[in-house]
Amino acid sequence: MQIIEVEGLCKSYGENTILSDFSFKVNEGEVIAVIGPSGSGKSTVLRCLSLLEKIDKGKITVGGKVMVKTSKDGKAEYAPEKELKKIKLRLGMVFQNFNLFPHFTALRNITEAPVHVLGIPYKEAEDTAMELLNKIGLSEKVNSYPCQLSGGESQRVAIARALAMNPDILLFDEPTSALDPELTGEVLKVMRNLAAENMTMVVVTHEMGFARDVADRVIFMEKGKIIEEGSSENIFTNPANERTRAFIRGFYGQE
Amino acid sequence: MLFMEQLIGFFGSKEMDAFIAQWGLLLNGAFVSLQIFVLTLLFSLPLGLFVALGRMSAKKWLSKPLEIYILIMRGTPLLLQIMFIYFAPYYIFGKSYYGRFAAVIIAFSINYAAYFAEIYRGGIESIPHGQYEAASVLGFTKFQAFTRIILPQVIKRIIPAVGNEVITLVKDTALANIIGVSELFRVTKNETNRTATVTAFFYAGIIYLALNWIVTKILNSLEKKFGYYK
Ligand SMILES: Nc1ncnc2c1ncn2[C@@H]1O[C@H](COP(=O)(O)OP(=O)(O)OP(=O)(O)O)[C@@H](O)[C@H]1O
Ligand SMILES: [Mg+2]
C-alpha cells in the first residue's frame, strides 16, 4: 500500500522555483534515501509533506487521504483544518538539529504531545515513553534535560518523541549532519533497527553508507528535480545518469 | 557607656514619640508606594504580553498603532504621562472620571506595559524557529505551542531584563507625588519641611532600599527556579 503519493508538486519562494513538477511515492514499510547536492530542495520536499511549507500546486496523498490537491483555478487547495491535522499526525519528523524542548526532561519531551495532542492518559504515555527510551538505549536518561544530553542522545530522544505519536511514516532531514562523526553511529543504529521493524521512512542524508545498506530505494535529486531513482544497488553500483555518477563519485572521493 | 544611657533616656521620651510617629507616617507612605508597585505589575505584565503579540502581528492595522503606542510611552517622560492622564479628562470633558490614585495606576500600567512588551518581544524572537516547527509537526495547536513550549522558555530568558524594570518601578513610584498621591516620597518631603531636618530623607532611602532588597531576593530565587535547564 502507498503511504505517500506526491504528484506534480510545485513550490517556489517568490521568484525562486525550488520544486517543479515533483512526483514520488512511498510504499508501506519502505525506506527511501534522498540524496543530492546542497540546495537541491531535499529539505523542502520533507517540509511540504509535514506542512511546514505550503505548496503552490500539486497533489499530496497520505494514507489514501488527500492532504492537498490542485483546485480548478490551478492553486493548491488544502483539506479542511480538522482533516489536515489528522493527516499531519500520520507523519513524524526528525530534524537535523533535534529541536528538543530544552525546558522538558527527555521523558516529558516524549510524553507531552501524546498527552496534550492525542489525549492519551499520562500513565499510558509514560509507559510508552519508557519503552521507547529503553529501545533506544537511554533508560538512564529519563530525567535528563536536553542540555545534559550529547548530540547523539538528543537525536535518539527526538526519534523517540516522533515515534511516541505512533506515525505511519517517519521523515528524517539529515538526522546525523549536526553530529560529531563518532556519534552518528548510535543514531544510524536506531534507524537501522526501525527499518528492520518495517517502519516506513524517508531519509534525507549525506550518509552514503546508510543509504546504500539500509535504503530500499534511493532518490537522487538536483535543482528540484529527481534525476534518478532506483534500488540502492543500482544507484550506487550502476547509476544510469552521469550526474548521479559524478555526485556519488564525489562522495567516495572525499572519504 | 554614654551611649547606653542616651538610649535608655530615649525610651519614653518625647523624642521617641516623635520618632515613632514619623516612622508611622513614612510606613503609611511606603504602603501606598507598595500598592502602586503591586497594582502596576499586576496590570502591566499581562498587558505587555498582549501588546508584544499585537506588535509582532503581520496585520499592519494592529502592529502599527502598537508600535506608535510603544514609541510614545518610551519616548516621553512618565511624569508627563501621569499628569496628562490625570488632567486630560478635566480639560477635555470638563470633569474627571477617576481619582489621583487610579490615574497613577493607569499611567504606570500603560507605561510599564510598553517596556515589558519590548522585553517580551525580544524574548519571543530569540526562541529558535525550530521550536515552533517541532511543535507544529507534533500536532500542537498554535496556542498550545505558545503556552507550553515557547512562553516558558521566554520567561526564563527575560527574567533579568524584567527584573531591571521592576527595580526601576520601585523607585519610579515616587513620581506619583506630582499629582498629590501620598506615597513615600511625598510623605517624606512633607516631613522634611515640617521638621526642618533631612532625617526623613535618610529613612525613606532605607525603605526604598529595603523594598528593592526584597525584590532582588525574589528575582534571584525566580532565576534559580528557572535555572534547571540551559
Ligand atoms: N524560507 C526560504 N525562503 C527562500 N528560499 C528558501 C527558503 N528555504 C529554502 N530556500 C531555498 O530553497 C532551496 C532549496 O532548499 P533546501 O533546504 O530544500 O535544500 P536542501 O537540498 O535541503 O539543501 P541542504 O543539503 O543544504 O540541506 C535553496 O536554494 C534555498 O536557498
Ligand atoms: Mg536540507
Textual characterization of the structure:
The complex is a heterodimer of chains A (255) and B (230). With 255 residues, chain A is of the alpha/beta class. Chain A has helices at 42-49, 81-88, 106-116, 122-135, 151-163, 181-196, 208-214, 232-237, 242-254, and strands at 2-13, 16-27, 31-35, 57-62, 65-70, 76-78, 91-94, 169-173, 200-204, 217-222, 225-231. A 6-stranded mixed β-sheet of chain A has the order 7-8-9-3-10-11, with helices on both faces. Chain B has one domain (22-225): Orthogonal Bundle (MetI-like fold), CATH 1.10.3720.10. Chain B has 9 helices and no strands. Chain B has helices spanning 2-10, 14-55, 60-75, 78-93, 100-125, 129-137, 142-172, 184-195, 199-225. In chain B, helix 5 packs across helix 7. In chain B, 28% of the residues are buried. Bound molecules: adenosine-5'-triphosphate and magnesium ion (MG). The site of magnesium ion has 4 residues of chain A, from helix 1. Residues 42-43, 173-174 of chain A line the site of magnesium ion (MG).
Q: Quick summary of this structure?
A:
Chain A is an alpha/beta fold and 255 residues long. Chain A has helices at residues 42-49, 81-88, 106-116, 122-135, 151-163, 181-196, 208-214, 232-237, 242-254; strands at residues 2-13, 16-27, 31-35, 57-62, 65-70, 76-78, 91-94, 169-173, 200-204, 217-222, 225-231.
